[in-house]
C-alpha cells in the first residue's frame, strides 16, 4: 500500500465545548473575508468582456473583438495590459500576505482583518471611479493588498476560534464564501452589463465596497482569538473569552495547552529557517505542492475568463455572462457536497475522484474546441448543441474541482502543519497560491492564442501528475486530531525516513508539557 495506510487510532483528544451561537456568529463574520476574495475572482472576467469597458480602457482589444468572426478567434483578447489588470491583484496579495503574517502575530488577527477591509474599500472606490488604466491598476493593487491581509488572517482566525470537532467544516466554510463571492459577482455582472449607457462596469467594480465594509465593520466587533491574546500576554482575558466561546466553564485543559503551545512556538527564534529542517520536509513539500497543483488544475482560467472563453467559442456577451452564472452555481453547490463528505469519504478519495473527473472533462473540451476551431481559430457557424456540450463539460469540470482541489487546497495544508511552523508554512501556502494564480492570470490569454485547444491538454497533463502525487505521497488525514498528525508521516512508506520515531513532527513534543495528555497509538 503506497500511501494512506494509516488508520486513526482512538487517541482522540476531546476538549469540552459546543458550537455556540457566539462562535458561529464570529466564524460567519470572519468567513466574509473569503467573500471578498471570491468577488474579485468573479468580477474581473465579466468586466473584461463588457464592450463599453474595453472600448474605454483597452481600445485595441475592443477593435479586435469587433472584427468579424473569420479572423483568428483564439487571439482576440491577447493583450498584456488587459491581463495585467486581472493579475496585478495577485502579485500585490502575494507581497502583503508575507507582511500580514507579522502583523497577525504581533498585533492580533483582527487588526489584519481590519487592514484587509480598509484596503479593500479604498481599492473598490478607486476602481469604481476610474478614468484611466493606471487608476484601474492602482485600485486592483489595493484590493490585492486587502486580500493578502484577509487570506493570511481569516483562515487562522477560523481555525483558532472553531471548536476542535468542527474545524474541518468551518475551514471549508471559508471556501464556501469564496464561491458565493464569485457567484454574486457573476450575477451582478450579468445585470450591470445590461445598463444603458454602458457604465455598469463601474457598479461591478465599485460593488466590492459592500463585502469590504462588512469585513471592516465585522473586524471591529469581533473578539480576537484566545490564542492571539495569550501570545500577547493577556492570559486572564483569554481565559474568560475561551469560556464564552466554548460555552462551558471548564476550559482549563484547552487553555493550558494553548499556553504551553504558545511558549513552545515562542522558543523558536527563526520559524522560516526552522522550516528547512529535515523533519519538516513532508510539510514543506505539501506547503508548496498543494497550492501549486491547485492552480495548475486550470480552474482560474474558467473563473477569470469564463465569459471571455464562452465568447471565444461563439456565445454573445449576454449568453457568456449567463454561462458564467451557471458555472458559478455549480461551484457553490459542489462545495456543499465537499462539506458534507470530507470527513466521511476522506481527503484522498475526493482528490482522486475530482482529479479523474477534471481530466475527462478537459480532454472532451479540448477535443470539442479542436474539432470546431482547428489550429487557425476560424470556427465558421457554431451549432447550438456544440455550445451546450462545451458548457456541460465545463460545469462537470468545475464540480470536480469544487469538491476536491478547491476546498482541500486550503484545508489540507492548514491541518498538517505542526504548531511551531504553522504560521510560516501557512504564509508559504498563501504565497505559492498567489504566485501561480498570478502566472496563470497573466499568461492564459497569450497561451490560448498560441497553444489553442492544446492549452486544455496542458492542464490535463498536470491533473494526471497531481493525482499520481496524491496517490503516492499524501497520507489520509481524515479523523486525525491535529496534535496527532505526526503519525501519518511516521507510518508513511516514504516520509517515515524524514520524520523519525521520537520526533513527533507536530505540535509539542511528548513529555515537554504534561498538559498535552495526547495518546499516541
Ligand atoms: C482557489 C481560487 C479559485 C477558487 C474557485 C479557490 O480555492 O484558491 O484560486 O478561484 O477556489 O472557487
Structure description:
It holds the Pfam family Sugar_tr. This protein is mainly alpha-helical. The chain has a single domain (21-224, 268-498), classed as Up-down Bundle (Growth Hormone, Chain: A). The chain is 72% helix and 0% strand. Helix 5 (109-128) packs antiparallel against helix 6, helix 5 (109-128) runs antiparallel to helix 8 and helix 16 runs parallel beside helix 18. 55% of the residues are buried. The chain binds beta-D-glucopyranose. Beta-D-glucopyranose binds at residues 41, 175, 178-179, 182, 294, 299-300, 303, 331, 406, 409-410, 433, 437.
Helix content: over 70%
What is the CATH architecture term?
A: Up-down Bundle
End-to-end separation in angstroms reads: 20 Å
CATH topology descriptor: Growth Hormone, Chain: A
Bound molecules: beta-D-glucopyranose
What is the string of SSEs from the N terminus onward? HHHHHHHHHHHHHHHHHHHHHH
Strand elements, count: 0
Mean pLDDT: 82
Secondary structure category? mainly alpha
Q: What spatial form do the alpha-carbon principal axes imply? A: globular
Helix tally equals 22
CATH homologous superfamily (4th level) name: MFS general substrate transporter like domains
* Poorly predicted tracts of residues: 1-11, 504-521
What is the CATH class name? Mainly Alpha
Largest sheet: none
Number of domains: 1
Q: Which value, in Å, is the CA radius of gyration? A: 23 Å
Beta content comes to under 5%
GO molecular function, one term: symporter activity
Domain Major facilitator superfamily (MFS) profile: 26-478
Protein name: Major facilitator superfamily (MFS) profile domain-containing protein
Main location: membrane
Amino acid at each position: 500500500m503506497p500511501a494512506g495506510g494509516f488508520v486513526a487510532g482512538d487517541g482522540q483528544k476531546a476538549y469540552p465545548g459546543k458550537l455556540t451561537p457566539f462562535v458561529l456568529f464570529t466564524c460567519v463574520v470572519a468567513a466574509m473575508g473569503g467573500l471578498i476574495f471570491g468577488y474579485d475572482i468573479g468580477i474581473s472576467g465579466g468586466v473584461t468582456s463588457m464592450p463599453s469597458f474595453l472600448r474605454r480602457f483597452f481600445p485595441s482589444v475592443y477593435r479586435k473583438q469587433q472584427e468579424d468572426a473569420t479572423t483568428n478567434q483564439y487571439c482576440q483578447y491577447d493583450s498584456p495590459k488587459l491581463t495585467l489588470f486581472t493579475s496585478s491583484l495577485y502579485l500585490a496579495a502575494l507581497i502583503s500576505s508575507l507582511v500580514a503574517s507579522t502583523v497577525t502575530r504581533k498585533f492580533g488577527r483582527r487588526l489584519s482583518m481590519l487592514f484587509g477591509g480598509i484596503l479593500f474599500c479604498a481599492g473598490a472606490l478607486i476602481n469604481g471611479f476610474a478614468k484611466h488604466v493606471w487608476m484601474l491598476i492602482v485600485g486592483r493593487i489595493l484590493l490585492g493588498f486587502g486580500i493578502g491581509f484577509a487570506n493570511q488572517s481569516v483562515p487562522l482566525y477560523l481555525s483558532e476560534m472553531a471548536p476542535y470537532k468542527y474545524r474541518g467544516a468551518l475551514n471549508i466554510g471559508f471556501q464556501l464564501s469564496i464561491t458565493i463571492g464569485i457567484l454574486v459577482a457573476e450575477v451582478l455582472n450579468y445585470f450591470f452589463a445590461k445598463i444603458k449607457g454602458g457604465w455598469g462596469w463601474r457598479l461591478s467594480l465599485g460593488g466590492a465596497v459592500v463585502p469590504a465594509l462588512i469585513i471592516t465593520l465585522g473586524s471591529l466587533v469581533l473578539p480576537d482569538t484566545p490564542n492571539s491574546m495569550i501570545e500577547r500576554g493577556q492570559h486572564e482575558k483569554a481565559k474568560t473569552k475561551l469560556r464564552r466561546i466554548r460555552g462551558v466553564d471548564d476550559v482549563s485543559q484547552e487553555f493550558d495547552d494553548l499556553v504551553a503551545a504558545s511558549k513552545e512556538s515562542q522558543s523558536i527564534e527563526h520559524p522560516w529557517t526552522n522550516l528547512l529542517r529535515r523533519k519538516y520536509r513532508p510539510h514543506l513539500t505539501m506547503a508548496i505542492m498543494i497550492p501549486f497543483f491547485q492552480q495548475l488544475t486550470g480552474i482560474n482560467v474558467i473563473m477569470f475568463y469564463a465569459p471571455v472563453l464562452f465568447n471565444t467559442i461563439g456565445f454573445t456577451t449576454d449568453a457568456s455572462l449567463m454561462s458564467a452564472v451557471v458555472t458559478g452555481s455549480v461551484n457553490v453547490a459542489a462545495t456543499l457536497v465537499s462539506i458534507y463528505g470530507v470527513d466521511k469519504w476522506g481527503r484522498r478519495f475526493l482528490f482522486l475522484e475530482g482529479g479523474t473527473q477534471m481530466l475527462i472533462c478537459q480532454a472532451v473540451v479540448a477535443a470539442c474546441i479542436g474539432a470546431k476551431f482547428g489550429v487557425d481559430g476560424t470556427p465558421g457557424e457554431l451549432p447550438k448543441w456544440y455550445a451546450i456540450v462545451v458548457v456541460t463539460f465545463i460545469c462537470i469540470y468545475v464540480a470536480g474541482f469544487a469538491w476536491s482541489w478547491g476546498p482541500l487546497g486550503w484545508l489540507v495544508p492548514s491541518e498538517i502543519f505542526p504548531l511551531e511552523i504553522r504560521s510560516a508554512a501557512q504564509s508559504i501556502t498563501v504565497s505559492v497560491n498567489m504566485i501561480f494564480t498570478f502566472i496563470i492570470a497573466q499568461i492564459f490569454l497569450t497561451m490560448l492564442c498560441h497553444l489553442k485547444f492544446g492549452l486544455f491538454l496542458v492542464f490535463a497533463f498536470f491533473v494526471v501528475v497531481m493525482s499520481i502525487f496524491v496517490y503516492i505521497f499524501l497520507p489520509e488525514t481524515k479523523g486525525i486530531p491535529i496534535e496527532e498528525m505526526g503519525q501519518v508521516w511516521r507510518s508513511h512508506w516514504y516520509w517515515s525516513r524524514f520524520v523519525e520515531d521520537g520526533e513527533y513532527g507536530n505540535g509539542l513534543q511528548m513529555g515537554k508539557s504534561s498538559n498535552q495528555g495526547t495518546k499516541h497509538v
